[in-house]
């Protein structure tokens, strides 16, 4: 790089020869473009976005994010290319001078480093949905106390088509759980060994639900009674077929799936159920 | 529970991926305001009476629909354009709730009932109340960090800048808006990233049996729900659905406190406030809404009639 003449705003901190403002401008441009591409990669069909947010409601926002990232990256690159270094003096450069670390200083590099944290996690850690380890407390709570407000009733859905959330909703919207006795069940979820069920063969089939993103994720599950239930290990995705039995546990009516079959299956494309 | 890197990464990325587009839209809005709104527009828009100006700040969200991630850069930009301090604070606190999207989501979750009305009345009271407290301080230098301070145009080194009272042409304006949004994203983004890391580390809501015993207590339930709102850092556009989960077990006042305090202040917005306000002021911006919301919610729980 040739020697540049710096404007008076940015020449006091760095050594002659390297225009740190320009270097960091390019690093920022790189981060923006990689973020944009990462968001696109997440949002494309077959991408991992479903592990993080409610794709149905907010998937489009990821595209908006990608579009803004890429536009910012491209405009910034054009700006860096077009502007000769001695002119590289945006009319907003005074914003840096007071508080912002000056280009090339240690803190300015640390700040840039922080911006790469999402990329490090996103590209460096294998993408997985929330699993049994993310469940705290016990799940086998009294289903009739869960409130779904004015959300649509799921009692009208044919019983074999209800997913785990539909079942929990139906239970909470019903005045008498006995009406579900004997109804056919066909649900997909992952195995969760609830502490309350320790000592029995029973386990739970669980799905995380969300309305927005994993910050509001809540697990819901149904107790499964299956003779060889202990063979399934935690977090295995399974399809459970059977029918509902209402048991009285500690005086509280509790629905349990009496399973005819439990089969290992692959993780659904959308691991979470959406409210 | 042991630390699980995969779960931590999922939680962190979930919050980051959900919040970042909102922050980007906020920084873009801020850039567009810089390019296309001039100081005279702001001066004309804001009433001279400080009380009226603060009330207007509380309602401004319906004009600039932003959530809690987007509102911070927009507020900072409006401050640079000369928005009064108290108006900006009322806007900052109220806008994440005072916007059409949140009206819709709260209505979808709770219907048109006391929770919907209560949320809006309380948000207006708390945001405008805190804003009014700040009308006594008329020296922005004591409140704001230098990047947010309105600088009246004087001569000197800044004279190369285009006169700020001029509105920019469309295309150069958009280009400038994107360049500013880029600057601002790197500045605010790091607070968002810190906030998301913290919120992810706190985990999802662990409502243990011990906490549920507090659920029906008129005072403790409020503090539990406000603390959860702060820690969970759920976006204001959907927090109503999350609040539903507690609606049967927790007192109505505490549900309202969750819906009022959460959008004003949470871990990630606190981090972003640090980019606008001095540290001491950020403390007040957490403590005042916390106390005011708690006061109102407890009053509701105790069925105090005014």
Write out key terms for the chains shown.
heterodimer, A: 275 residues, alpha/beta, OB fold (Dihydrolipoamide Acetyltransferase, E2P), 6 strands, disordered N terminus, B: 306 residues, mainly alpha, 0% strand, globular
Concise account of the structure shown:
Chain A is α/β, with parallel strands linked by helices and 275 residues long.
Question: Could you characterize what this model shows?
Answer:
Chain A is of the alpha/beta class and 275 residues long. Chain A has 2 domains: 20-124, no CATH class; 132-274, Nucleic acid-binding proteins (OB fold (Dihydrolipoamide Acetyltransferase, E2P)). In chain A, 31% of the residues lie in helices and 19% in strands. Chain A contains 6 helices and 6 strands. In chain A, strands 1-2-3-5-4 form a 5-stranded mixed beta barrel. In chain A, helix 1 (20-43) runs antiparallel to helix 2. Chain A starts with 19 loop residues before the first helix and ends with a strand. The relative contact order of chain A is 0.13. By secondary structure, chain B is mainly α. Chain B has one domain. The longest helix of chain B is centred in the middle third of the chain and has 33 residues, at 170-202. Chain B is globular and about 60 Å long. At the A-B interface, helix 1, helix 2, helix 3, helix 4 and helix 5 of A face helix 1, helix 6, helix 8 and helix 11 of B.
